[in-house]
Design goal:
Elements: E1 3-7, H1 12-21, E2 27-31, H2 36-42, E3 47-50, H3 58-62, E4 69-72, H4 82-88, E5 92-94, H5 100-115, H6 118-126, E6 147-151, H7 155-166, E7 170-174, H8 181-187, E8 190-191, H9 194-200, E9 203-206, H10 220-225, E10 231-234, H11 243-251, E11 257-260, E12 277-280, E13 283-288, E14 291-295, E15 312-313, H12 316-319
Parallel strand pairs: 1-2, 1-3, 3-4, 4-5, 6-7, 6-9, 7-8, 9-10, 10-11, 11-14
Antiparallel strand pairs: 5-15, 12-13, 13-14
Length: 320
């Protein structure tokens, strides 16, 4: 009987859905990751489904001689040991498009939150500054007619483009795989080289996977290219942005602000330099020398649906 194994980190509701979708004659087992009962089940497991929070080195594959596939619940796979999987001859399949809608909507939320200074406005109301705000010192911005630069035009990047179009934004993109002219017209985007996009965009939003080529993709040099009124949005992976360089750019007002859904260390420490806390009646606001920084870390569970569509192979040529 083919066995699927997954860590016991799923809700009962999620597991009930998974069992309904389980093919006849298959079994789904769960156990606390790394515990003796998990390792015992792993011996006869052919399919493993996980979210990437556990490190799987060579010892994992040695303990699973019958393993055929590792299926991730997320689109990202940067936490997986691809070398260990390749050595064991086990393909890793990612869940391409998982959370794409949620992340695209969250990117738009962060753009609006920073442009309209949502945290500052909320705290002004709850602290009694209803009509006492100095609107000359705190300018608010609209998305309409602003230029949005999308770095990475995959599933999420395209969804962001469609949503930004509804806000009447001008949309540029940079991706290593350029669209055809007809595809650009259909999506309402225009290609720009990476430096040009940074220099001309009012908002830069990041939607790239994390690998060696994208680690610290946005650093001191790139931030210096951006407009002093520009906003950086990151909803992909924390290490894509050099946090020290971002801190300095915000401190020195080289850019206007940033909206972050991800950080290098998660959860970040309370005293992280990016958000010194200014406490008031409304709780803790996060500002940096007059420049608002909107941070909204969230984790949306991926659907636990094995076999719901074709698997997306991660670097299939490298793992073959």
């Amino acid at each position: 009987m083919p066995r699927i194994l997954s860590p016991s980190t799923h809700s009962q509701e999620t597991l009930a859905i998974a069992h309904e979708l389980l093919p006849t004659g298959w079994e789904l087992k769960t156990a606390p990751h790394g515990r003796p009962e998990f390792l015992e089940l792993l011996k006869d497991t052919e399919y493993y489904i996980g979210a990437g929070q556990f490190k799987h080195g060579p010892e994992f594959y040695q303990a699973a001689p019958k393993l055929k596939i590792v299926q991730t619940l997320s689109a990202g796979y940067n936490t997986y040991d691809l070398e260990a999987a390749r050595a064991a001859g086990v393909p890793i399949c990612n869940n391409g498009g998982a959370n794409a809608t949620a992340v695209a909507e969250h990117a738009m939320l962060l753009m609006l939150a920073v442009c309209r200074k949502l945290i500052w406005q909320h705290e002004g109301v709850v602290s009694g500054r209803w009509r006492g705000n100095d609107f000359n010192s705190y300018k608010l911005y609209e998305l309409e007619d602003k230029t949005l630069g999308i770095i990475g035009l995959g599933n999420i990047g395209k969804k962001v483009a469609r949503r930004a179009k509804a806000f009447d934004m001008h949309i540029k993109y940079y991706d290593i795989n350029r669209l055809t002219a007809d595809q650009e017209d259909a999506l309402g985007v225009r290609f720009a080289l990476f430096p040009e996009l940074l220099k001309t965009s009012d908002i830069v939003t990041l939607h790239v996977p994390l690998d060696m080529s994208t680690h610290n993709l946005i650093g001191e040099r790139e931030l210096a290219m951006m407009k002093p009124t520009a906003i950086l949005i990151n909803t992909c992976r924390g290490p894509v942005v050099d946090e020290k360089a971002l801190y300095m750019a915000l401190r020195d007002e080289k850019i206007l602000g940033a909206g972050l859904d991800v950080m290098v260390e998660e959860p970040p420490k309370p005293d992280h330099e990016l958000f010194p806390q200014v406490r008031g009646l409304g709780g803790a606001s996060r500002r940096l020398h007059g420049v608002e920084l909107s941070i909204a870390l969230f984790d949306t569970a991926s659907p636990f649906v094995p076999g719901n569509r074709g698997a997306d192979m991660v670097r299939a040529s490298a793992l073959a």
